[in-house]
Amino acid sequence: MICSNFLDVITKELSEGIIQEMKRILKRNGLLLLKINFFLDSSLIEKLKMELIDENTYQINGVIRSYNLSTEAWVQRFDSFEVMAIDGFQRAPHLPKDRILLMKKI
Questions:
Q1: For residues 38 and 88, what is the distance between their CA atoms, to the nearest angstrom?
Q2: What dotted CATH number matches 2-39+70-105?
Q3: How far is CA 39 from the centre of its chain?
Q4: Which pLDDT score is estimated for 98?
Q5: Mean pLDDT of 45-54
């Protein structure tokens, strides 16, 4: 299963519901490739003029742009998965690396 730039740009509640469905749908030893945006630190939040609308949830011009969690917090949300690899890639030269996680359902 591939999930790219989705779980981290919706509300916590919606994200949690989708994660529960992923856990239900994937069979044992099924693979999940999860791509999430870079973690926003306080200086980036200020630079991008993001508005906090809920816990760890930021918007720009009324559109949710980040459900901002550390990589470790994202991994914890997938408690029935084993992390096989964590990597990243530079999407834009002036921004931190986006995150890629490969996980296997146990």
A1: 9
A2: 3.40.50.150
A3: 9
A4: 96
A5: 95
